Amino acid sequence: MSSTRLLSPLINRNSNNGYNSLRRLGLCFGLEKQRIENFRFLCSSASAMTEASTKAEALSFETLNPNIKVMEYAVRGPLVIRAGEIEKELEKGVKKPFKEVIRANIGDCHAMGQKPITFIRQMLALVAYPELLHDSRFPEDVKQRVRTVLEGCKGGSVGSYTDSPGIEVIRRHVAEYIQRRDGHPSNWEDIVLGSGASDAIKNVIKLLICHIDCKEPGVMIPIPQYPLYSATLAEFGIRQIGYYLDESKNWGLDINELQRAVDDARKKCHPRAIVVINPGNPTGQVLTRQNIEDIIKFAYNEQLFMLADEVYQHNVYAKGSAFFSFKKVMMEMGEPYNKMELASFMSSSKGYMGECGLRGGYVEVVNMNPMVKAMYLKAISAMLCPTVLGQIVMDAVVNPPREDEPSYELYMKEKSAVLDSLKLRAEMVVKTFNTFEGYSCNPVQGAMYAFPQVKLPPGAIRAAAKADQSPDVFYAFELLENTGICIVPGSGFGQREGTFHFRTTILPQPEKLKEMLEKFQAFHQKFINKYKN
Amino acid sequence: MSSTRLLSPLINRNSNNGYNSLRRLGLCFGLEKQRIENFRFLCSSASAMTEASTKAEALSFETLNPNIKVMEYAVRGPLVIRAGEIEKELEKGVKKPFKEVIRANIGDCHAMGQKPITFIRQMLALVAYPELLHDSRFPEDVKQRVRTVLEGCKGGSVGSYTDSPGIEVIRRHVAEYIQRRDGHPSNWEDIVLGSGASDAIKNVIKLLICHIDCKEPGVMIPIPQYPLYSATLAEFGIRQIGYYLDESKNWGLDINELQRAVDDARKKCHPRAIVVINPGNPTGQVLTRQNIEDIIKFAYNEQLFMLADEVYQHNVYAKGSAFFSFKKVMMEMGEPYNKMELASFMSSSKGYMGECGLRGGYVEVVNMNPMVKAMYLKAISAMLCPTVLGQIVMDAVVNPPREDEPSYELYMKEKSAVLDSLKLRAEMVVKTFNTFEGYSCNPVQGAMYAFPQVKLPPGAIRAAAKADQSPDVFYAFELLENTGICIVPGSGFGQREGTFHFRTTILPQPEKLKEMLEKFQAFHQKFINKYKN
């Protein structure tokens, strides 16, 4: 039982000030003051709050699920809400020192001008409107795939429900893709499609909610991490066991640190699983094969279920870096490691395709206890099925045009254009940040983000304290208000005490990115000068 | 705290027989024997179970989330799994007394031969592949809507994330639709789009997980009910408070029964909300305005949050029946009722469109405490956004062609064809069932299902007991194995002790439905004769 679940005795339906209540709850559970302050952005107005809490309500702030109260999702937090407000102000003609908001807070490729892959979109148009199968402007390989997928849909329509783990033929295509990627067999029945990787991740983590020997469950996650994990653990009342990535070793995983984290945690909870994000989000590292082997051995020794977040497997840029899946490494390590339980997640939102809005994703569950798997499949069945069009995007990703097919040339051209450009942008961002005073930024070997460390001057620390904000949040708000650039402060992902970071995507198109970095530099220099003492 | 959450002391990682363990757990928590037996269908093989439980596992059946173990979703249960197996056997040439499985278990319109609405599919094709905006074969009203929606997508692409509650312009269209429907204002900021109504329903129910005065939360649901509710409550550890619908009054809601249910429940839990499904699933009734008023007064007196599942609002067939939304009735009742908290759910899966696979849905949250609403929006933000194409289907549903637009004629023709045919089928099913020996079937006033009561003869009750099945499950399995017709036994929805029902959809196309009913009748007569003593 997480401490938040034991809130009930504190709850008082007669409390007439929800905001103060929130403060109290926040303080109870060690939330930073900042988070409480941020809350104000989420409410439409203080008067609405007061009004709301005076009438008898079935669902008041006091009687709201306490896990929902404490969960956070920084990528869409108060800073991003403020960015939206600024956009509306600009539309209304409010004068600002900039003309537009640059949303570098979220890995949203198409929003930043990346063009869709024609092959994927043609597949979608044809499955949605099969009349177009008779249209000679669409290539035969697209039509062939569309026919295959529609045969797998009941009634030949994408409007019918699929099996809960997805359309069989698409699950088979995913398994074939994994087999080609890893050189090891993959069983299509181990593939479960989801509405995006997030959906699949939550559905697997949910299985772990169970007290063992009266101890609450815990899941190890990297710090810094992608906040889906902290949010999901908070929602599920699972204890977050943070292990720090080693910034001095390009955000690699240090086994001693893993050991420290799990040993500390065992005093308070039952560690059940470890999450590894590779390539890293927000940190952009690509793990070496050796590092992965060490992590697998560690997980084996500690009897941990492995969750490998591998959604950036197509996004590897750095010379000498290569993506190794946990499955491949585990299989090649042989007994007993090749019998370990693993869930590996993939998405159609990232990579070269960047189809975030279409919500395609899958998980491969390896060596899962068959009874557990049966229960898992039962649990997802109540949600019927993941979006069929999302499933079809995933199909297009794992079963792309082959060299002898008509769509191949254009597909390869578009794919390479995106990945080559991302590679250049990854280098540009790192190189530029490393020229800023007080910045140090590890190479972006993969994924879509840079996570530089910023030394903030004493004046900034004081000003932040005065504004009741943590220094990185203060910095990010100043940046937003002065330049329109929206980034996410490091505290949203976690960082070592006393260090300050932020995450920016590398997604603005090259010209825009250049402009953004110039504005950023000018802002930073001013900021440093203003707050240097 | 639900009892299932207190399992931990029972859990023993060294248990070497998961299946027996399951039996024990099942018995502990009063599961029917049937359910435990059914579980065998879910596991690939008994040997796999034994093998799996002998090695050290991070996630074993014993350490699996206990709420997941007890949740059930009958619409996709063992009977449906068996139906899938039979389909594969038929494909392989195994001889059966029938040629195909008729899936009357699930409201999956397109799977049963219903054709998609052209207007909806054209919109989808064009948003996915905007090149087609230049194609003169697509009507201008479709193009106009596509341009509007794409303007609302960041970067003009459906591949970008939207705001977590959905695209603003679509939320506005939904609000306008509600306003036209009810004749009362609807605020677009109260509209939250979801990946299907199921997603929206779970996200709202989740808010209610909170112990109050050390009592666990409870939610009132109808019996019979749609099993998404029982499954969701089980998953969340919320106590299910069943209130029986009155079969003798065409499945209406009897306020005395509501009062009985809530009074009983208050001894054990804190009732927080009431779910009403109108038109009814699985029961097909359409509530009268008076009945809705009474329910609203009851909810007011008991301080309950109202969840109105109104996904079948377009599916009303019976003469004299009309759909009234809870919102409309509540608003017209005036103070204090018009200030009550309500969530009303809608979907693009049902109605005349039947686009189940595309996962479009929305909830209108009325009078929700603004702080609670802020937390709700925060909670959904970690899942980023509902599928954009599902959002766009919802847009097409709430903003259909107007009389002066080019798509209107075809749209109306297709829409009426579906609804008129469903009306005929609703009548045909009820009329036919009422001619069967021992059957009584209320009229299907709305939705897509009939839920007849069947008096089973003593021999059948004994045979079921011998087969370790409940009689309705026994009947449904016999029907499936002998005719290929797949229905869902009443126990999956709940029914009064000692009565037996099943749910069948009215979705097979008319010719097929006629054939199905003939086969059904022949089977039933044989069954009755075989088991009469």
TrEMBL record, chains A, B:
EC identifiers of the protein: 2.6.1.2
Record keywords: Aminotransferase, Pyridoxal phosphate, Transferase
Keyword GTP-binding recorded: no
GO terms (BP aspect): L-alanine catabolic process
Taxonomic superkingdom: Eukaryota
Aminotransferase class I/classII large domain: residues covered: 152-519
Listed pathway(s): Amino-acid degradation; L-alanine degradation via transaminase pathway; pyruvate from L-alanine: step 1/1
Stored Pfam families: Aminotran_1_2 (PF00155)
Stored InterPro entries: ALAT1/2-like, Aminotransferase_I/II_large, PyrdxlP-dep_Trfase, PyrdxlP-dep_Trfase_major, PyrdxlP-dep_Trfase_small
Necessary cofactors: pyridoxal 5'-phosphate
Substrates-to-products reaction catalysed: L-alanine + 2-oxoglutarate = pyruvate + L-glutamate
CDD domains linked: AAT_like
GO molecular function: L-alanine:2-oxoglutarate aminotransferase activity; pyridoxal phosphate binding
Enzyme class: transferase
Subunit comment: Homodimer.
Homology family: Belongs to the class-I pyridoxal-phosphate-dependent aminotransferase family. Alanine aminotransferase subfamily.
UniProt protein name: alanine transaminase
Annotated source species: Agrilus planipennis
